[in-house]
Amino acid sequence: MDKNKPDILDVTSSLMKKIVYSETSDNETNYISNWVSLIMDANLYRENMPFKQPFRTQNPQIVLITSGTATYSINYIKHELKQGVLLCLPIGTNFSIYQKSQDFNMHILDFKIPKHMTQNFFLFQLDIFKLNTTTNARIKKYFSLLQDCIKEERRSSVEHIIFALLYDIKQLKEECNNTMQLHQTSSEILYCQFMQLLLSDQDRLHRAPSFYAGHFAKSPNYFSYTIKHISGLSVKEWITRVTLDSAKILLRETDLSINEISKKLGYSTPSSFCRIFKQREYVSPNDFRNTHHDIE
After folding, report:
1. Which DSSP state fits 49?
2. Cα(152)–Cα(20) distance, rounded to whole angstroms?
3. The predicted structure's pLDDT at residue 27
4. Rounded to two decimals, what is the model's pTM?
5. How many CA atoms lie within 13 Å of 84's alpha carbon, on the beta-carbon side?
6. What is the pLDDT of residue 151?
7. What is the Cα–Cα distance from 209 to 186, expressed in whole angstroms?
8. Which of 39, 63, 290, 296 has fewest C-beta within 10 Å?
């Protein structure tokens, strides 16, 4: 056995808890099987989602593409998804569907993690892996085993399978991160960190570019130049784009009033929110809601 590569049998119970659990006291720790929902035929789950409309993950998810092809925008970057692609989606991941084949399908493992534990849960960064044949077959087995054990209410087995799956993905992340660090420039890393912070700020979106420059201890001019050079959009344009996508999701999926939505998203007045929304979307917030609000 290669001593440099940890074997699953050598992983102690305490290490497994560090992988799966956040830093909580014993009396607060919940078994992960209490938080999990599994969807094996996700094509039906998302078949009614309209094309090119923004959606956001409410919980961390592990998604395995099992058949067909699709084009998804994930955090504003288009990705071609096909069999053998594994996605780790943190809370707040922005996605929209551009096209998908009729046979497109995926397995989804959804973690309904308590809010106070989400920041320490290791699935807090977006990762997209193209699995080789061996790894893809192994990940598919995890999903199949989970489905069987959930049906038979084998809680202990569910937990052990999830431990093994998360450990496997943790290894993939570490291998991928080591490779990416050799290729990413400091500007690309800064842009990725900015987008992660921007998309995670769902409740009261900071609307001043200076906030983000200060957060990363950069001068406003340098920060703005770097983001536009990497992405083609300025910091202000990204803030507006993400804010309006948040508005569309709230208009479509909640019954919050226009006043409540404008306040939640940091606009000074409802009228300024309505004006900017109509300028960008060519319809008023109310008209958008009337068109899309019946979608579940």
Report:
1. P
2. 23
3. 42
4. 0.78
5. 6
6. 86
7. 19
8. 296
**What residues have CB less than 8 Å from 233, skipping those under 6 apart?**
227, 241
The residue ranges of every structural domain in the chain are 8-182, 186-292
Which tens digits make up the pLDDT trace of 119-133?
555 556 788 899 999
8-182: CATH topology: Jelly Rolls (2.60.120)
The answer to whether 77 and 271 are in contact (CB under 8 A) is: no
pLDDT digits (tens, 9 = 90+) for 252-279: 989 999 999 998 888 889 999 999 999 9
Burial class (CB in 10 A: 0-12, 13-18, 19+), 206: middle
- Predicted confidence at residue 222, as pLDDT, reads 93
Q: For residue 125, what are the contacts with CB-CB under 8 A and spacing of at least 6?
A: 88, 90, 173, 196
Residue from 207, 293, 48, 253 nearest 283 by CA: 293
| Fold (CATH) for 186-292 | Arc Repressor Mutant, subunit A (1.10.10)
Sheet of 127-130, strand order: 36-39, 105-111, 61-67, 85-89, 127-130
Candidates 38, 109, 39, 101; CA nearest to 67 is 101
